[in-house]
Amino acid sequence: MELKIEAASGIYEIRHLASNTAYCGRTVNLKKRRCQHFSALAYGRHSNKPMQRDYDASREGNSAFLFAVLEYVEPDQLIEREQAFISSGEYGYNRSNDAVAGCGVGEGHHAHLGTFVTPWGSYPSSYQAAEQSEGMMSQASVWTSCTKAEKVISGNAYGHSIYLQSHYDRSIVGKMTWRDIGFSFQPNNQ
């Protein structure tokens, strides 16, 4: 029986039951983050490739994994508390032993350490920016929009973006870049 997950900030883990391999993460909305992880796994789009491989190899789908709240934490304490859990060495799915450096997408995420600038604020990770978008953009969409800010907004991007559709009419397609509407990425080394 699964416990009800609150829409509160905290530290969580996702554990593959067959291998006992786990991922530790932080979020300002545990309930929403759980849904994001399991949706990405179900659609074969999770950015954590080892976790996705284990999911794909399992015939049990979401039930092959357990999402557990490790600790409810105030938002300003999230990084510190996540780091304490990651430092235990028990989280084989985490790509980094550094809670801050571990945020990002794909195998080359370390090249994108810095600030993700969006129209609704600046954040140290694309995950945090997505969480603050009030459901209008996914983590992957924020990452792409910020790190490829010079890219012209396509019809496909417009058609799949709740944020764009709720803030702009279709006339921006092919004419404006993501930077033009307030997205960018500022690397730490600059």
Please write out the topology.
Blueprint: E1 10-16, E2 21-27, H1 30-42, H2 49-57, E3 65-72, H3 78-86, E4 114-118, E5 121-123, H4 126-131, H5 139-147, H6 155-160, H7 162-167, E6 184-187
Antiparallel strand pairs: 1-2, 1-3, 4-5, 4-6
What does it look like?
- The protein is an alpha+beta fold and 190 residues long.
- It has helices spanning 30-42, 49-57, 78-86, 126-131, 139-147, 155-160, 162-167, and strands at residues 10-16, 21-27, 65-72, 114-118, 121-123, 184-187.
- Strands 2-1-3 form a 3-stranded antiparallel sheet. Strands 5-4-6 form a 3-stranded antiparallel sheet.
- A hairpin with a 2-residue loop joins β4 and β5.
- The longest helix is centred in the first third of the chain and has 13 residues, at 30-42.
